[in-house]
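Quick review question:
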């Protein structure tokens, strides 16, 4: 049995758009992937607000690069990993462009690659933010610039994965944010992403 870490933010945790609730097992993408992997184990580790390297003074313990060493050690051994981060890095408080966010991703990959072969790490660029994500009724921690930055993460992450020898998949090719909050996937998005990730994992396993 292979142990596969799924490391991400609220779209890995399974936040229901417009709420603080979580999609149940059988709806969120991590569980759908697990149900198809009878011989392998998905270790779910999504956290709302998680970033690659940025400290959020309003929400502590969200810095991905800091927590990864502990997660890797506590779940040892790990055979593969899926990492999908970057949406929260687009918040206006961090003032980071896609290149800077990519550097943060690489620090996370550095930690994973201490224990996992680069070709067994699936880098997933996140879904794009919707056009009204920043309005008061949705998430004003973002602004118009955040939307553009989120669109650029696919190209940046793909470039990084190719250079480092990681696998790559763009969540934005398979899922869009719900119109409810312009930030999180709906049930269909989780289903579509799960199919794409499952296919990629099977490809990685047979390689």
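Suggested answer, residue by residue:
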């Amino acid at each position: 049995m292979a142990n596969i870490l799924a490391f991400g933010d609220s779209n890995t945790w399974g936040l229901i758009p417009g709420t603080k609730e979580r999609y149940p097992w059988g709806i969120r993408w991590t569980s759908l992937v697990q149900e198809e992997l009878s011989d392998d184990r998905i270790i779910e580790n999504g956290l709302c607000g998680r970033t690659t390297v940025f400290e959020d003074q309003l929400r502590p313990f969200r810095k991905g690069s800091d927590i990864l060493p502990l997660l890797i050690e506590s779940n040892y051994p790990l055979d593969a990993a899926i990492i999908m981060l970057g949406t929260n890095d687009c918040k206006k408080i961090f003032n980071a462009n896609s290149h800077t966010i990519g550097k943060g991703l690489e620090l996370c990959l550095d930690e994973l690659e201490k224990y996992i072969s680069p070709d067994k790490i699936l880098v997933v660029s996140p879904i794009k933010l919707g056009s009204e994500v920043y309005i008061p009724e949705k998430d004003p921690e973002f602004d118009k610039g955040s939307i553009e930055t989120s669109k650029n993460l696919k190209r940046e992450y793909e470039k990084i994965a190719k250079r480092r020898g990681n696998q790559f998949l763009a969540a934005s090719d398979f899922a869009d944010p719900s119109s409810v909050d312009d930030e999180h996937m709906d049930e269909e998005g989780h289903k579509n992403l799960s199919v794409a990730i499952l296919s990629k994992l099977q490809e990685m396993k047979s390689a």
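Why it works: The domain at 2-206 is CATH 3.40.50.1110 (Rossmann fold). The first helix runs from residue 10 to 13.
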